[in-house]
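[job 0412] stage=complex_fold ligand=protoporphyrin IX containing FE status=START
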Amino acid sequence: MLTNEQMTVITSTVPVLEEHGVKVTTRFYRQLFNDHPELLNLFNHVNQETGDQPKALAYSLYQAASNIENLESILPVVKQIAHKHRSIGVKEEHYPIVGEYLLQAMQDELGLNSDDPVIEAWGAAYGIIADVFIQVEKEMYEQAGWDGFREMKVSSKVRESDEIYSFYFSPADGGPLPLFQPGQYISIEASIPGEKYRHIRQYSLSDAPGKNHYRISVKRENNPEGIVSNYLHDQVNAEDSIYISAPAGDFTVKEAHSPLILISGGVGVTPLLSMYKRVRESQPERPVTFVQAVRNENVHGLAEEIHVLKEDSHIRHIVCYEEPENIDAGDFKGRLTPEALASFLPQEQAEYYLCGPELFMQSVYDMLKDLGISSNQISYEFFGPTMTLVEN
Ligand code: HEM
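[job 0412] stage=complex_fold status=DONE, emitting structure tokens
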């Protein structure tokens, strides 16, 4: 428990965290990896270089500090992060190490002594926040389909577009595959020849659940170069082994009766396709509008699968090509405009699911809000460290 004085100190340092949070967390990671290089096996190095992970950590601490008197209210955010932690293999014993380096970074960045009331209050607050994460993650570990990273055999590798390959895999031991919820992702743990550390990355499952395989559809990332996506594209083939953790994530489709609107940008189609396929099986009458924004025909992954879907009368499938090669291709050309989006959407109350690059999602989210769609009708998932679209 925090004392009343500590609570007051935490509340009064929220503006400080808002101002210095990213500096503190950047310093924290630098020192942590310097002294504990083994933790580089867990973290995405690109998210460190871009500063996205320090930003995400600072933001979540800021949120926790602002709600320290009512941590229940940020439980959904905690769960989202905890899913990622569980999928990667963050353990209870890691929390004290992170706490120690975080407080040290705060002291150094703010020029405070270890017995300063601010540092003492933050030490107590970190303990409380960490306990919430540890409890939530404990339950997730208990409920996970399996423990740690499990060996899978790639049964096939299919080229979907100039940039996307699908990988189908099933357990190397021939055991069963647990069901997952459409929209969930798995983590791949890649030991890449010539690389000092293992690399872990998340990929959404792109097929419906209930098959004897899992499927991911991976875009080759070039800017910055995606070490794992390039490895998968260039070096992993049918019959090879890959290691994955059990499905995770809470970006999952609810079984409502209202129309379902799926809006994807680029390879963000993957979780939405899984949702779509599941809904077609479980709620065949449910109206679906699938708006797919893609750069051009050459990078339009999973096009054939989408084409089959288009033959169904309950489905509106709208393809938007930002820069089409063929001027007649697709249903809409150029970047989505509010007018175009409005013309694709139903009049009734609907549930919206968005996935794609951050700028795309921000623009679609803002357009939906301007069209009067309330934020509790919109779910979204980032490819990258969890942030929010709401306050921007
Ligand atoms: C990811 C917060 C403790 C390891 C994240 C993310 C946040 C976060 C906001 C981004 C989530 C996402 O990508 O969707 C926190 C908070 C913690 C905490 C508030 C303490 C209360 C830990 C600990 C470890 C850890 C103890 C273990 C060393 C990771 C890793 C990732 C991550 C490996 C993925 C990073 C990446 O992909 O680059 N955490 N975390 N976290 N966290 Fe934590």
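The mean pLDDT is 90.
[job 0412] exit 0
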